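dumping the sequnces here before i forget
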Amino acid sequence: MSGQKVADQKWKIALVGSGNWGSAIARLVGKNVKERSDHFDTEVKMWCYEEDFEGRKLTEVINDKHENVKYLPGVDLGDNVVAEPDLAKAVEGANALIFVIPHQFIAKTCEQLEGKIAKGTHGISLIKGVDVKDGQIHIFSEVISERLGIECAALSGANIANEVAQDSFSETTIGCRDIDVAKKWQQLFETEKFRVAVSEDVVGVSLGGALKNVVAVAAGLIDGMKWGNNAKQGKLTDRSLDPARLGSQAAIMRIGLLEMKRFSLEFFPGTQPDTFVQESAGVADLITSCLGGRNHKVAAAFVTKGKSFEDLEKEMLNGQKLQGVETAKELYHFLETRGRQDAYPLFTFVYRVAYEGVKPDTITAHI
Amino acid sequence: MSGQKVADQKWKIALVGSGNWGSAIARLVGKNVKERSDHFDTEVKMWCYEEDFEGRKLTEVINDKHENVKYLPGVDLGDNVVAEPDLAKAVEGANALIFVIPHQFIAKTCEQLEGKIAKGTHGISLIKGVDVKDGQIHIFSEVISERLGIECAALSGANIANEVAQDSFSETTIGCRDIDVAKKWQQLFETEKFRVAVSEDVVGVSLGGALKNVVAVAAGLIDGMKWGNNAKQGKLTDRSLDPARLGSQAAIMRIGLLEMKRFSLEFFPGTQPDTFVQESAGVADLITSCLGGRNHKVAAAFVTKGKSFEDLEKEMLNGQKLQGVETAKELYHFLETRGRQDAYPLFTFVYRVAYEGVKPDTITAHI
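..and the predicted 3d for all of it:
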């Protein structure tokens, strides 16, 4: 597509992924390509890892009912969103790819796509997390970009899939080095209720979505402690009790936000500080994660139930790893290699609680 | 006290005010002056508007039980915090005054204090809100400063009185132009669990605490709408429902925070942008107010009950005015005079919902 202005290109979209968030995004994209058919091909392919659903193939049910009955039940995806079980077929002919798969599947998915993606294809990663290997941290946009030889942007924000699927008001941030491409992505995703801001800070947008999970674990620990604390405060009357511990939560969020920002500026020079304190991918996403979600929930249970994160993952997450705790470990090793763990007391505290038996209620001695 | 270094001065503290927050602060200050008796006189006077409590005078009960049985029951204030019903006596001999009264009592209190305060006395205002008169906005630190002829700092942050009284972890910000004086105040208030940051930005610290109430009203409106909305979404299964609307709340907080910052920079040149996006008096206080508190609660009821704010104030606030709605009106008139109301769409939206019958669910058409 070189030589042609991005704004004039007609993009054909494929989604690589079809979970809860992928399906919510497919619905938005499906609506927008119909309304903006001069800019986009009106059919959207959605790669869907084939599985059985009540005796039928999931992709068949999706294409029959126009509903992802398994991962986003009750929501009409539109008849132009077509589920496709074959990855190569799903991306065939597409010149804009939306990556929205769990991070543990990236390597394998990229392997299957290698050599099949035309040069000049645009990519955007909606995958949260970071890749830590051999003492280096990479954002997934970079990983995809290198593996497939394409430019890859990032989209991240305070987005709850089910809210977006219900057209409840929310915002997100797109990080993309080429501002014209960023605007094209914005055109693809934005609706009146789903506001998209664009930024050139791909790294900041991506790191926000990864680092916040560590802070959410700390917020969950605080939330877990409040119950114990209130129980101990038998002397206080109902009137003077404040079970919410909002002030403590807000303090953790603030401290965590500044640590996220500091970390990114130290190790990813060129990151924009405002991405953290002003964008949806920063402060707003952090707020949602510290108030709800699995990191917060499992961390609270860690305090109230006194079990290990390993056991709680098995019990509460069906064996999946808890992202915030995993990221805390990766960050800790990354920082330790550089002798910088003490400069990030909240991140380090979460690591030590999860892996070294440090007691959650000693938090104020650590941060 | 001129000529002597602030750090070497011995401060004698009086609190002007003794409500829920005033009592929580009196307890902290009482503990600290004992531990730091080389810097502070160990007796703390607390002016207390006299009232009847179960047949006795409230000040007598406080001084007898060392507990503010009416406004902070169940919490030991310490025997060196002395309630005093006579304002002039309470401040006599004090060279450091903590103002912590509802804003509607400032004028009258200052009137009673005029001429009684020695030059060089240090003041700090813990009063939330702004004073809007004749098309001008003043922070209360300034009002106190001008009326009494003393320097007046400001303390504001994500502080819930009952949490602070329980030594739950939280943070606050002191704004004070003289950094040595700021550090002395910090020494007076800070504990391991109550973290105090200092800043020279008196105005930013004060505005944060006032403007956040308007954003909290918007957050409450969103919270009120979610119930209605979920009820309408009967088709969605339980699994896909997300009653929290966290993404919408986070979006409102983010947009509100930036509007607060923009407003302050436009009309109070010299305000530090970081105060809003990085300090407890900014982002953290905003978060607590948007998740709890009366502005949020009454605004949610405005949507669910369909009554006017005036009626809800009578029902829910015992006739008191709702600060966020009041501030929205004051800001609107301030902005309108300058033709700038459209530059602050969230503030203006809250005003229009409260006073002009604009429907809360049209929010995305306004902001």
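The radius of gyration of chain A is 21 Å.
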